[in-house]
Structure formats: structure tokens, C-alpha cells
Write a structure and sequence with these properties.
FAD/NAD(P)-binding domain, globular, 5-stranded parallel sheet, about 25% helix, Enolase-like, domain 1, homodimer
Chain lengths: ~450, ~450
């Protein structure tokens, strides 16, 4: 049995390790364009911040470890074509091209940073994106010589990088094209996040929202001025584009593999594409949202690991279903934890629910405890069915705890009434007698029915 | 409408406040033997420790606040009899006895500390239990003059008091009659808790397990020596009995109100007793365990609040069901968080399941984060149906997060397979790509079926 895997960050490396455990005698080959394998890209902002000195802490498995377990790793290897009719891929290494046979193929090509359409951007050396280990090392090295930075985009990566820069004393400007930062959240929650971060005690940063980075001006190899769509000019020593990612699906599309409505590779619950013996997993693959039932593309390291495992099992002949995702996320920026799961109110509306929501700001633990702080929770339900749809949380501690508490309820398709008396753990250092999540749920329940 | 409530800590005071909001014109009267109302008894160990200076921080509502909202509070009032045939209770205040009419009666008499059968114990002044605000104030005042203390019982209250004493420099001995501390947990988890606490960096305490406090010897008003069942002698300046509580049901039983198999007052989902117009809630009432379906008695402040609210609604004519509890708890002792929900393995066996479990010890967040520490998680399922039954967690941070994440799944009666790919939030400061809870769940899933 010849197993070929394209890509070796989260999904690809997880799939390789799992398949080798299931089929010790199979030939397992990984091809990656990258010069590192099996690393924690989510950890890059924490490396840049200086939480640990050696970037190698980010490496989960080395190529040598893979080789030692009998997995062949080809780094700096570009897969140019998938040829399903002949069960082969075309691999280019330097000048050399080679056809490699597969019995089962797992596509884990990941995603690439979205780059803006700015004329002449390629001429500058101080423009970065953050995706690979090299990106992280380059950004950290440049940061250490910089006084000012501009981050384009206020998604999670932009926000985490903001924390890294600000804690290193860099004067940082975040430019966000939407009117609100972290636009993944409902706009009322984005306001709360912004307010908390702006009152975090750090003052060496600013948000510019509703603005595009429309031009760059520089001196020689270095961009020195970011010019926004309203004509603002921001001086800087470096620019990092954190404006989202796009799935790497070109070779799959060319091979006749079906691409879903989200632009990622369409797979079934077994992580199989429309072509026999070809699986896709991780950031290049489309997911099903468990709450809406709709196809979504939410590229996350945690999902990539689970999908890689499931794709490997099915490729190895061991039945495994991956039901989908809830869109659960968490991120930290300057003491503020922001977390969500399920559908936001705006997403719920978009997919055809009749959303109703409740938002509370409460102490995250009993007020007499010295560590107590405020947490804001928003919960969303469908007014017609009473079905719980999702939640968003912002706070210093315990925000992600409340969001994780919702995940099982979303998996089980519970109604708000069913959850509103849930037995959450209570003790003064951990919550309040009626947990803030239950406060929110009871208000929401009353908006749906009187029997709450 | 005359509403009478007996008891005014968590359930009683919550019921009073809720009923007054629902029926502003009703007469609402509370009778309590206590000299405080509406306080956080769970906060007493934190007051004793010195987290806040004024015990009044523990008071949620004062009698004056109740009176201002039109609720009549009778403190130091002993209810001697419930007379259902005439819709009256007999109240004793000092020398005076009085019949008080009710249309609806809510019993929230709580629970009392279990006292050991030690001869002559009543003669000593330095023997305490911890239940009321006075208890807390007395223990703190005595602790400030003491060098040594003995705590009898290593349930949550005993463990929290241990933290308070140890942090105040008191040499503390905890005597536990079971072989393992915190016997609520499965014994393997108790071992882990003990190991963590004994390695917490504090050395002014010891556990004596498998020992009863069988005798006390003293000088005059003060017990000075605790003698255990194996003849050990422990010198001490004070003794606190934290050996569990028993529900206060005597007046209910005498009135013909049905007592359940657990010894607490039997109620239906509407919190009604077997007698019309009489409700019971909080620590005096029996609960239904949502996982086993069995009656249980798990007296907790969080449950008391929810039951008080629900009893009030039904008494006021607004339909409300309280489905039951999961037995979710959390406690902290010397940097260790211990938390559980659902059934332990031993409980699962006792109620007729065929339990199978998986235990993992993993980093609670990605290992390269400076704050990372180990967490031990045990998850329990039924081998025959695959149904998830419960979980236990021990760690520095994040233990309660994993337990709360299980609650929704227990409410929804999910199987292990359904939960094993749950979309929990991930980011390096919060968890690992595959959360330790999912690691445990995948091992458990494999023990049940191969399709994991």
C-alpha cells in the first residue's frame, strides 16, 4: 500500500503519523513545499512576542523523527499535478520532475495568506505575512530592530500579533477595512473587545477601522509609509498583512476534484473527495457547520488535526466519520480573551434562522474574590424553535470556559430552555452561584417563551 | 396571596426575591432561625483565609433590602410545625408562639453539619462547624490566635478550609475516615489530588486517612488533643468538623411531607412536595440525577438558587420545570483545582451501568507557553451503550473548563463517539490542538468500539 500525502503542517503530519500506526508496513510519503514540517503555526505570535527563545519549540515532529518511524519526507518539494486517472502525482524538486504513484492520496495543502492588490508591493523587503516558521523568525528579527509597525487586518492573527508587538514596545497601528475590529464577532461584541483592549493599560497602539491600506511609499527596499483609503499616512518600519487566508486548491481543481461553494475542496464525512482514493483534510478542505448544516470554510489547527486523523483512518480502511465543526475559536489580545462557538447573530440571520440574542456583562466569579473581573456573554438562539445557535464571550478569565460549556449543547442540538438550568460548576474562585452563562440563557429563554 | 418561606440562605432568599417580582402585590414572609439572611456560605473559607476583610461582603441582600422591597423577614424565628390541614405554620420567637397562615409554603430549611459521636464534645469551646456567617467569623477569630488546627473530613469544605489555614501559617492536620482524601472522587483521582497538594510547596499540613477522630482531651473549655481510632494523638488549638451535612427535614416529616430515599424532601419537577401548595427547594430537597435518573442528594448553592427560582415561579402560578442535576462541582486547595460532573466510575457501577474509563495526564495548554502545567482528566462511559456518564479533572488551571465542557453533552445524553471530535476552542494560551479532554475521549471511544 502506497500512501502519498501532500502537505505536512497540521493535517498532513497528523495523517502521516496516524496511518503509519494503523498500517506499519505501508509506504507513507509526504511532499511539502515548506522547509519545516509538523509545526504549530498558531504559536508563531507567541514566539514573536518572546514567550520562548527557540523557534524549534514550535516543531511537533522533525523530519528525522518522521524518517525514523518509516515515513518518507520530501521537503521543498512542489507537487505540480495530481493525475487521478493514473494514480500518480507530478513532483518537482529543484530542476527535477518525477511521477510518484499512490494507492491513496491525502491532500493537505493548507491555505495561503491573502495579499492585497497594492501596486509595487513586491519591491519592498519589510512586508510580511505570518504563516510559516520562516515568516515568524523573519518578523521577530525585524521587530527587534523596529520602533513602529503596521498590521493590516484585525482577525485573530492580527490581534495576537498586536499583543506581541505592543508588549515589545513597538508603536503599532492596526488597519481594518471593516467598521469594527475582529469582524468575526457580532458588531456589539467587537465594540466591547475594542473598548477592553483600548483600556488595557497599554498605549502604544491604535486601531484604524473602515480603512483600506491602499498604497505604500518607501525608500529603496523598505516601505516607510502606509497610505489609507481616506488619505491617512502612517509611518512604519514594517508591515504585516494579516488579511485572511485562501485555501490552496489549484492542483486539486485542475485534477477534476470538486471544489465546494466556499472555495475549499468538497469532502464527505469520511474526508473523501469526489474522486476515489483521494482524501482532503485541514485548511484546504471544506467543513460542515453542525449548527446550520451548511458548508463552511473555517480553517483552524484544531480541526486540521482531527480531519487529518479521520482521513488517515479511512485511507487505511478503518471507518471514521467527521461530523463537522461548530466554529469554536479563542484568542487573546492584551489581557482580553475573546471566544465564540456556533453561529453569531449575523451568521444565523444569513443562513435562515430567526435569531434572538441576550447579552450580559457580569462578574466572572463572586465579586468578593480579589481576582474577580467582568465578562460579557452573548448567546444566540432561534426564536421559532428555541434552538441554541451559538455564543460569544469576552473577558479576562473564564470567557473560553463559558464557550466550551456551550459546545456539547450545540452538538446535542439542545434548546435554550433545556440548557438554562444546566449544572455548571460553582465555587467562589471560579464563577457565581448562577453562572453568567445561565443568566444570559435565562434572559434569552424569556425572550422565546414565558416558561423560563 | 400569602406566600410563606422557611429559610433564607440561598434557595429561600432567591425564592422570596423572585416571587415578589412575579407577584408584586403578594404578601411574602420569610422565617429563619439564622441571624443573617441571603449570604454566600460557599465564600466562608475565602473570608477565613483573608481574601477580604469584612464578612459583610458575603451578604447578597440585607434584611433591610428585603423589607424595602416589601418582603417581611423574621430572623431568629424558629418554625416548630407545619400544619397543612389548616394552611398554617407555628412560629416561635423567643417566648412567643404564633400561627401564620399561608396560601403557598416554600420549605428551604437547608442542611446542618453532621456532628460526630464523641463523648463530652459539647464541653469544649474550640470545636467548630462551618455553615453560617457566625461560624465563619468565629473560626477566623480563633484561627488568628492559633498555631495548630485539626480539620475532620476532607470533603470540599475541609479542603478549602485547609487552604485557608495553611496560607495563614497554621499547622493543620486533616483527618479523613476513608482511605482516600476527597472521597467524592474515584480513588485514583483522589491519589492525584493528594499528590499535587502535598507537592504544592506548602509543608505546614498533613493528611491522616483511614482514621476516625474518636476522642478529644482538653484543659477546661479547650480541647487540646484529638485522638484517632488508631491511637494517634494530635495536639491542636482548634478543631473544625467538616464531616458532611444532613438535610433539615424534621418539621416536614412531622407534617406528613414525603421524605425521599436519600433522606431529603421528595419533590417533583415543579419543586412541589406530595402536599398541595407546599414546595421544597435547596439543600433540604432531594434532586434527580440527570445521567442516572435516580434520586440523589447533592446539596449545592448553585442548585439551591435554581431550585428557589423554580419553586417561586410555580408557587406564583408560572410554570417552571427543574430537570435535575449533574453533580457538577469545583473546588480549589493549595493551587490545585478539582472538578467533576456526572457519575464517577464507582457511582456508575452502583447505579447499574457497565462503566469504562480513560485517564490522561497532559499539558493544559501548548507546552511552549510559559504558563503551561499538567492536567489529569478521567472520563467515564457506559461500555454497552457508549453513553458518556461523567468526568473528573485535576489541575492548576483549566480543570473546571474541561468539566463544564462535558455538562452540555451530559444534558444532551451524547455518546462518547459523538463527543470525541467536539469542536473545543484552541489557541496556545488556552489548550492544545487536540484538547486533553478529546485525547481522553478518543481513548475511551476506542475502549468501546473500534470506530474511533
Amino acid at each position: 500500500m502506497n500512501i502519498v500525502i501532500i502537505g505536512a503542517v497540521a493535517a498532513g503530519s497528523k495523517a502521516a503519523a496516524k496511518i503509519k500506526r494503523l498500517l506499519p508496513n505501508a509506504s507513507v510519503k509526504i511532499f511539502t513545499q515548506d522547509s519545516h514540517v509538523s509545526y504549530s503555526s498558531c504559536g508563531l505570535p507567541y514566539y514573536i512576542e518572546g514567550n520562548f527563545a527557540d523557534y524549534r519549540a514550535l516543531l511537533v515532529r522533525t523530519p528525522e523523527e518522521f524518517e525514523a518511524s518509516g515515513i518518507n519526507v520530501c521537503m521543498n518539494c512542489y507537487v505540480d499535478k495530481i493525475l487521478p486517472a493514473q494514480n500518480e502525482i507530478l513532483v518537482c524538486t529543484g530542476e527535477k520532475a518525477e511521477l510518484v504513484h499512490y494507492d491513496k492520496l491525502i491532500i493537505a495543502t493548507g491555505a495561503s495568506p491573502r495579499m492585497p492588490n497594492i501596486k509595487g508591493i513586491e519591491r519592498y523587503r519589510n512586508i510580511y505575512t505570518l504563516r510559516t516558521v520562516e515568516d515568524g523568525v523573519n518578523i521577530r528579527n525585524k521587530m527587534l530592530q523596529s520602533k513602529r509597525a503596521v498590521i493590516i487586518g484585525s482577525g485573530y492573527i492580527g490581534m495576537e500579533l498586536l499583543e506581541s508587538f505592543v508588549k515589545n514596545g513597538i508603536h503599532t497601528t492596526v488597519i481594518e477595512k471593516n467598521e469594527k475590529i475582529v469582524p468575526l464577532f457580532d458588531s456589539d461584541m467587537s465594540d466591547i473587545i475594542r473598548d477592553r483592549i483600548e483600556n488595557s493599560g497599554y498605549d502604544n497602539f491604535q486601531f484604524l477601522t473602515g480603512e483600506l491600506a491602499s498604497d505604500l511609499q518607501g525608500e529603496g527596499e523598505n516601505a516607510r509609509l502606509v497610505i489609507t483609503s481616506t488619505g491617512k499616512e502612517i509611518e512604519t518600519d514594517m508591515v504585516v498583512f494579516c488579511a485572511g487566508v485562501i485555501p490552496n486548491v489549484d492542483i486539486a481543481r485542475e485534477a477534476g476534484i470538486e471544489i465546494g461553494t466556499t472555495g475549499a475542496i468538497k469532502v464527505n464525512k469520511l474526508m473523501r473527495t469526489n474522486i476515489e482514493n483521494i482524501y482532503a483534510c485541514g485548511d484546504c478542505a471544506e467543513k460542515t457547520h453542525i449548527v446550520s448544516g451548511h458548508p463552511v470554510w473555517i480553517p483552524l489547527g484544531s480541526t486540521a488535526n482531527k480531519e487529518g486523523r479521520c482521513a488517515a483512518m479511512n485511507a487505511a480502511g478503518v471507518y471514521c466519520e467527521f461530523d463537522g465543526v461548530l466554529g469554536s475559536t479563542v484568542s487573546r489580545c492584551l489581557k482580553t480573551t475573546m471566544s465564540m462557538t456556533g453561529l453569531t447573530e449575523k451568521e444565523a440571520l444569513k443562513v435562515g434562522f430567526t435569531p434572538v440574542s441576550a447579552t450580559v456583562t457580569k462578574s466572572d466569579m463572586v465579586g468578593y474574590m480579589p481576582e474577580a473581573g467582568d465578562i460579557t456573554l452573548k448567546v444566540v438562539a432561534d426564536k421559532i424553535t428555541g434552538l441554541l445557535l451559538g455564543g460569544q464571550a469576552v473577558g479576562t478569565v473564564g470567557a473560553d470556559k463559558r464557550i466550551n460549556a456551550l459546545t456539547g449543547a450545540l452538538l446535542g442540538h439542545l434548546t435554550v430552555a433545556e440548557f438554562s438550568n444546566n449544572d455548571l460548576t460553582y465555587s467562589p474562585p471560579y464563577s457565581t452561584t448562577i453562572d453568567p452563562l445561565l443568566n444570559a440563557m435565562q434572559i434569552l429563554c424569556t425572550k422565546i417563551s414565558n416558561r423560563c
